[in-house]
Amino acid sequence: MTFDRITTDPDVMQGQPCIRGTRLTVRRVLAIVGEYPSRDEIRKDYPQLEDEDIRQALAYASATLEDRIIPLKDAS
């Protein structure tokens, strides 16, 4: 998967992955998606953030998370 809208630069936001050309980190985009009820509301407050930016931020976060199964104890 290509993340052409996600950049890292040690001189920008301490090297955290950001949406290209902005100081919006992937982490901040995830928080925005979780906080706002709709994409229309996001666009109103963050007009520089495009739908593809959001899609790639979500995909980037998913790709960088460790996927593991944690067995749960039987509740009975």
Commentary on this structure:
It is built from 3 helices and 2 strands; from the N terminus they run E-E-H-H-H. The chain has a single domain (6-64), classed as Arc Repressor Mutant, subunit A (Orthogonal Bundle), CATH 1.10.10. Helices cover 41% and strands 5% of the residues. A two-stranded antiparallel ribbon has the order 1-2. By secondary structure, it is mainly α. The longest helix has 14 residues, at 51-64.
Write a short abstract of this structure.
With 76 residues, the chain is mainly alpha-helical. The protein has three helices and two strands; from the N terminus they run ββααα.
Annotate the secondary structure layout.
Layout: E1 6-7, E2 18-19, H1 26-35, H2 39-45, H3 51-64
Antiparallel strand pairs: 1-2
How far is the N terminus from the C terminus?
43 Å
- Count the beta strands: 2
CATH class: Mainly Alpha
**Proportion of strand residues:** 5-15%
* Rg (CA only): 15 Å
- Count of alpha and pi helical runs: 3
Which geometry do the CA atoms define? extended
What is the architecture at the second tier of CATH? Answer: Orthogonal Bundle
What class would the helix/strand composition place it in?
A: mainly alpha
pLDDT averaged over residues? 93
Q: Give the strand order of the largest sheet, numbering strands 1, 2, ... along the chain.
A: 1-2
CATH H-tier superfamily? Winged helix-like DNA-binding domain superfamily/Winged helix DNA-binding domain
The CATH topology is Arc Repressor Mutant, subunit A
Tell me the major beta sheet: 2 strands, antiparallel
Query: What share of residues is helical?
Result: 40-55%
**Order of SSEs:** EEHHH
Uncertain runs are none
Number of domains: 1
